[in-house]
Amino acid sequence: MTTVATSGLDSLYDREQDQSVLVLSVDTARRLAREDLDACATADTHSHGAMLQAAVTLDYRLRSLLAALDAEDLAGPQDGTQ
């Protein structure tokens, strides 16, 4: 097993620095997540750059989708029920 030192490396996400500014609708976030998932499925697994791009893309999309779902939960039901 290979051990890699992680001191001095940047993490993919830093809660203090990286905050989503735009919260999409759930439908839009879901559509974009599916599109990006399809696009990343064809990434070259032997290319460090392609894998890094896929990781960043999917991380962003997942966070965006969760933000949309959280916003929908906070808004409550839209059909008049409680």
Report what the structure shows.
The chain has 82 residues and is mostly helical. The protein has a domain at 26-73. It is 54% helix and 0% strand. It contains 2 helices and no strands. It has helices spanning 26-41, 48-75. Helix 1 (26-41) packs antiparallel against helix 2. The radius of gyration is 17 Å and the shape is flat. The protein starts with 25 loop residues before the first helix and ends in a 7-residue tail after the last helix.
- Taking pLDDT < 50 over at least 5 consecutive residues as the criterion, the unreliable ranges are none
Q: What share of residues is helical? A: 40-55%
Number of strands: 0
The averaged pLDDT comes out at 86
Query: How would you sum up the global shape?
Result: flat
Please give the largest β-sheet: none
Strand content: under 5%
What Rg do the Cα atoms give? 17 Å
Oligomer: single chain
Number of helices: 2
Distance between the termini: 53 Å
Structural class: mainly alpha
What string, H for helix and E for strand, traces the elements in order? HH
